[in-house]
# Entry
Amino acid sequence: MEFPTSLRQLICVPQNVAIFSHRNPDGDAIGSALAMRHYLEQYGHTIHVIFPSEFPKEFESLPGSEDILIWDIHTEESKQVLSQKNLFFYLDFNALGRIDRLGDFVKDLPGKRIMIDHHLYPDPIADYVFSEPDASSTCELIYRFIEGMGDIIKISPTVGKCILTGIITDTGSFRHATNPSIYRIAADLVERGTDDTAVQDMIFNSNEEKNLRLLGHCLSNRMEYWPEYRTALIWLSKKDYETFNIQRGDTEGIVNYLLSMRSVRLAAFIHNQPTVVKLSLRSKGDLDVQEICKKHFNGGGHKNASGAFSHSSLKDTIERFKKILPEYKQVLEGLK
Ligand code: 5GP
Ligand code: MN
# Structure
């Protein structure tokens, strides 16, 4: 990371700041946005965190989550707030399409933009770009940003809690997309007073009864497995959404259960959200699901974790997914 004087001045002199992250915010989106907020506050900036859509309930215990503005709900207030801003942070996304109509509104506003992100192929939408697709998470990059600014002392237990949230969620608690530095970062955060057990509890032990019932339903009634393609799928219909009263975040992590099968290298979760059909693909090893999502479904993400939306029916989307499997059979067979 490089820190030109012009950037240092923006960070160290109070500005009117907006921090954004992507739609359907996950732990890394929320963690990076709130970590940046709590860091910048120490320089006296005026800050608003704005997301395009709501975030899962479990993250309500993160400090600062209570005054996040949601564009879908607080549209007028967001517009008013944004008209005062002169510094914009794009965290955990690298294309304006990932923040929907908020992106259309923000792109013409005057001010400087800083992108910190770990997805592949960034669009040229910021004045300062910290894009590292090999990083585990945007939160890892936030730690390195603060460290690079010479501000490690500003990583309070609150900033640490937010950073650790993104590292743990994006690595499935240190199971994938890891690298040596995240263990050092985690150790440093704990030494600085971050309560790691509280973070793990917030992420993994905040289920309600319905979440376990839903998981049981997915595994018993909604799972398909094609051993010849080393691929498994879980799907959910609109009716399932009603039966289980599925809310934002309730389906997070379900796709990972498929990867726990010894032979599976490609896992898919296809579900009929209220307005669109959403795909989540995960892979193990050298199978690039980013390419699959981009080529077949106009989506994207990372090599081993990507997503997309489909405007076809659930049935057609599942059929389309099945049809592409032969194209990857050879690669799948060859994987360790
Ligand atoms: P998930 O499957 O959990 O929604 O997303 C997995 C990864 O793919 C995340 O890093 C997410 O940002 C990215 N992703 C999900 N949906 C889309 C999409 O529609 N377009 C792009 N470009 N990336 C996506
Ligand atoms: Mn991320």
